[in-house]
Write a structure and sequence with these properties.
The protein contains 8 helices and 22 strands. It is α/β, with parallel strands linked by helices and about 350 residues long. The chain has 2 domains: about 230 residues, TIM Barrel (Alpha-Beta Barrel), CATH 3.20.20; about 90 residues, Immunoglobulins (Immunoglobulin-like, Sandwich), CATH 2.60.40.10. It comes from Marinomonas transparens.
Length: about 350
């Protein structure tokens, strides 16, 4: 039996103790390939990656171990000032060949979310367990990206809800077993393939004691949903250093409550309603952008509550609304993002009400 979607999310408040002088949030960077000849949409060149890592070092960012930092945030423990984490998705060999030497030279820890089927099949463009063991000795951590990199919300033709959920559970369990067998450890973290999840999958992840990342952008804090955490893409169109600097200096949007309407878009334009915490903010400077549509329409319901609406429905696929707002210092932007999936019948997605 599939659980019902949460249409609104109450965002937890941070404890103020011990966090006044330290960072209570974490930007997480997401990469894939480090290569000049792989698909540009998911790649950075070695030169671009070097530029990014040099900036982190020169600007005195503190690159932290992701799993440890997330555990600290959940416990309301302070992170170092200018803390940031580095991640990769997919088990591409270019991470070892071109990315790892750059990270090792700077002594930066990093996490790679691996899909294990190509590793087990010894495919030449993918990492080997021996390479991963070598990277472990210099700050590399390897986490779950499923076995076969499936769309986790799509069922096989004729598959029951129970069989689908069992198959997804096996996708996670097999990777966890392989991590323990080959690397002697697992950080109990997952990156959803294509960033797609729903309440049922997130509850499964929680039951397994795991934390997981979607593909919405933003920064993590104690009030985040730890079964659907944000990251900032830093490859392809997002690889410009000027863009990266803005993201690295972002803070979590100071929200008390968000209402998104669920994980799936329909033939109507999507909308989100955001309720802000008490405080002094530049709310008049809040701007929300819709994938491929430009600015969203903002309707203020009260002084602290706004609804952002897309101008037209999304096409089939994933779409998002990103909202930003400068803080009073002008040095940082508050950041919020939400992703919806617009399905078509032939794709076999689970019930949109699941």
């Amino acid at each position: 039996m599939l659980s019902k979607v949460r249409y609104g999310v109450v965002l937890g408040a941070l404890s103020t103790s011990a966090l006044v002088q330290a960072q209570d949030y974490l930007p997480v960077l997401q990469y894939h390939h480090v290569n000049s000849s792989t698909p540009s949409s998911t790649s950075v060149t070695p030169e671009q990656f070097t530029e990014h890592m040099d900036y982190l070092k020169e600007a005195n960012f503190k690159v932290v171990d992701l799993a440890s930092a997330l555990a600290d945030l959940k416990a309301n423990k302070a992170l170092p000032d200018k803390a940031v984490a580095i991640t990769f998705d997919d088990a591409w060999r270019s991470i070892y060949q071109a990315g790892f030497p750059i990270l090792k030279e700077r002594n930066f820890p990093f996490t790679v979310f691996i899909n294990t089927e190509p590793v087990e099949r010894h495919m030449r463009k993918h990492l080997t367990w021996e390479q991963m063991k070598e990277m472990q000795l210099s700050g590399g951590v390897f986490a779950n990206h499923t076995v076969r990199h499936p769309y986790m919300l799509r069922k096989i033709k004729g598959e029951t809800d129970e069989a689908w959920l069992s198959r997804m559970s096996n996708e996670l369990d097999e990777v966890e077993a392989l991590l323990l067998k080959n690397l002697d450890s697992s950080p109990k973290m997952l990156a959803y393939p294509f960033g797609e999840s729903n309440d049922t999958i997130r509850e499964l992840v929680k039951e397994k004691g795991m934390m997981a990342f979607g593909q919405q952008s933003g920064v993590v804090n104690a009030g985040s949903n730890f079964e659907n955490l944000p990251r900032f893409p830093a490859s392809g169109a997002y690889s410009k250093l000027s863009t990266l600097k803005t993201k690295l200096n972002s803070k979590p949007m100071p929200l008390l409550y968000e209402m998104t309407g669920g994980d799936f878009a329909t033939d109507e334009p999507v909308a989100i309603t955001l309720t802000f915490k008490q405080g002094k903010y530049r709310l008049k400077d809040l701007t929300c952008y819709v994938s491929g549509q430009g600015k969203a329409t903002l309707e203020w319901i009260s002084e602290k509550e706004v609804t952002a609406t897309a101008k037209k429905p999304f096409g089939v696929g994933r779409g998002r609304i990103n909202c930003t707002m400068p803080d009073y210092s002008g040095k940082h932007y508050y950041w919020y993002s939400n992703v919806w999936i617009r399905t078509s019948p032939e794709q076999g997605y689970v019930s949109e009400k699941s």
